[in-house]
Amino acid sequence: MSPADPLTQDFELGFTYTRSTGPVVGRFLTGLRERRIEGVRASDGRVIVPPMEYDPDTAAALEDFVEVGQEGELVSWCWVSEPRAAHPFERPFAWGMIRLDGADVPMVHCIAADSEQDLVTGARVRASWVDEPRGHISDIRCFELVEGGAS
Amino acid sequence: MRDIAVVAYHQSDCLASAGASNEVELIMPVLRQVFDQVGLHNAQDVDFVCSGSCDYLQGAAFAFVAGVDALGAVPPIRESHVEMDAAWALYESILKIRMGHADSALIYGFAKSSPGELPIVLSQQLDPYYLAPLWVDTVSLAALQARLMLDKGAITEADMAAVVARSRRNALGNPRAQLAGEVSVEELLAEETYVSPLRRHDCCPVSDGAAAMIIATVEQAERWGKPYARITGIDHRIESHNLGLRDLCDSVSTRRAAAAAGVADGAVDVAELYAPFSHQEIILSRALALGESTAINPSGGVLAGNLMMASGLSRVGEVFRRIVEGEAGRGVAHATSGPCLQHNLVAVLEAA
């Protein structure tokens, strides 16, 4: 090695192990693999989607799973006119808080739309799935507006 | 319980980029400033040191340990760190003193946020299964919160612009600020949206820098013979990590922390609020029940410059500074952490 050669070493920043997602998160993610969206019923009866492992008020372990709809209502949204490199879309899109039918608590996910003007709070949206779900939150590729579904 | 006094505070300029300076080089000047304010030589002259920083911002595990190089930790010192804003390092230091394990403490917070893409870096602090893999950034989450408030009629876009206009104007008197100037609500509203409904000016800038503070028992402060302000109350509360479960139009945790800290026990002359987004200052002002008689963010607040991991400590420092300079008799400082004001700390400071 000549003195001018820099010393280099490949380095991957990340966790080199796998871990179990447990009976609650794992069940939700497994459901996604079958294009099914499941929530969990909290002590006060509210259905929380995605499910939480512990009750937000009593801290009791939650296990009463409820399948919810693939459509829901846009509770809030924001328009990303300049997507970032890490974002799920390269073209402008929206983030939304979506309350799925049968759920009481909205979830955050991305929304595909042609323009900001197409979106309105209260709009009906539907889950759009990737071709090969693998048990990951991004198996839901995005939510899309339901035609004529504004409520 | 032992009374706590803030004795010294300094914050660096908020820089859009600190260039080639490393974290130690950001920290050392602010430490020198607070040592000089009290007449101390170095970290050997205080009983305890606690810092606040975030390894995610440096992109390396245990990166905060490098910050200790700024202290000169030989002979050994008693030192601690929180992976939080340094306002929480202040909280730990207060507990340490109240327990009788120290009579004085040095607190500092620092971050060089400019090299990374801050809103994306912060997305990795979210729920690791449901949110982080989507790379939903913190600006977008704040925008969802703002839309909820606008839809509900709890605020208007003009209200948000008014917060920004006041911040820019107040920052004209703050030599450490990054953004300052005279700008009207109409001019601000004429700007395009960024992450709609937010405009760029509704979001705090990304800043590099550091802040430091020295606190002590009131007895030690008297021995040092320097002007001080007393911390008469401090408390912090956190809300669920599930955004859907929270009332994002309110800050329940701030209300609870304010009640425990005794905010309502007297007049509030000045309040420094850690509101990274314009609408959040309105949420916080309401949660703290601040009225017309309170000067809110006279420094310009973090909309004029946001030192990650130090801005919360700076809010306490700004209130301290105004009290010892005689501008205020009693003030409230607030710090926040997490998306959409998830975790909030409230402190009450009073003249000695």
TrEMBL record, chain A:
<dbReference type="InterPro" id="IPR012340">
    <property type="entry name" value="NA-bd_OB-fold"/>
</dbReference>
<feature type="domain" description="ChsH2 C-terminal OB-fold">
    <location>
        <begin position="66"/>
        <end position="130"/>
    </location>
</feature>
<dbReference type="InterPro" id="IPR002878">
    <property type="entry name" value="ChsH2_C"/>
</dbReference>
<protein>
    <submittedName>
        <fullName>OB-fold domain-containing protein</fullName>
    </submittedName>
</protein>
<dbReference type="Pfam" id="PF01796">
    <property type="entry name" value="OB_ChsH2_C"/>
</dbReference>
<dbReference type="InterPro" id="IPR052513">
    <property type="entry name" value="Thioester_dehydratase-like"/>
</dbReference>
TrEMBL record, chain B:
<dbReference type="InterPro" id="IPR002155">
    <property type="entry name" value="Thiolase"/>
</dbReference>
<dbReference type="InterPro" id="IPR016039">
    <property type="entry name" value="Thiolase-like"/>
</dbReference>
<dbReference type="GO" id="GO:0003988">
    <property type="term" value="F:acetyl-CoA C-acyltransferase activity"/>
</dbReference>
<protein>
    <submittedName>
        <fullName>Lipid-transfer protein</fullName>
    </submittedName>
</protein>
